[in-house]
Prior knowledge:
The chain is mainly α. The protein has one domain (about 15-170). The chain is about 65% helix and about 5% strand. It is built from 9 helices and 2 strands, in the order ααααβααααβα. The chain is globular and about 50 Å long. The N and C termini lie far apart (about 65 Å).
Amino acid sequence: MFNLETLPARGLLRNGALLVIPPMIITFGLWGALPAAYSPVIFEKDIPRWLNLFENMFRVLTLGFPGILFFGKKEKGQSLGWHLYIWGLVVYLASYLAQIVYPDSVWSQSVIGFTAPAWSTIIWLTGIGLVCVRSWLPIPWHRVNYLLSAYIFLIFHIWHTGLVYFNVTR
């Protein structure tokens, strides 16, 4: 009898890295359509080096950790995690589309709207943290490790985006 659970592919089909792919498709797929303020030249202008360093260190951890994680079937908190992940992707996509379709709107020109692509990631990142509860490496693991890394990344990422907003609007 064929049993997917006994195949080595099981780990690949439930690897947390798969959950990072949809938001990266949104990010890189729509990046070129965003207003000029999001272009790398403007987005990196006048940002302190230390902020970029910490943001990128925690970005690597936050986007890399899912590669050593996998999701089970009925783990505690996993249902909430899937809901947050899916709704987080919807909100994240909407935050990009608002900037692209309505760049001159009150929303897009506000600090909340401009930084929405940064702060909205908290929803789908929390979803990943609740869905991926185990590591396939023989190391002690708890979802708090991932969530802490993600939230520290978001502090620096939102700070960076806020600085860009204030640099562009002054």
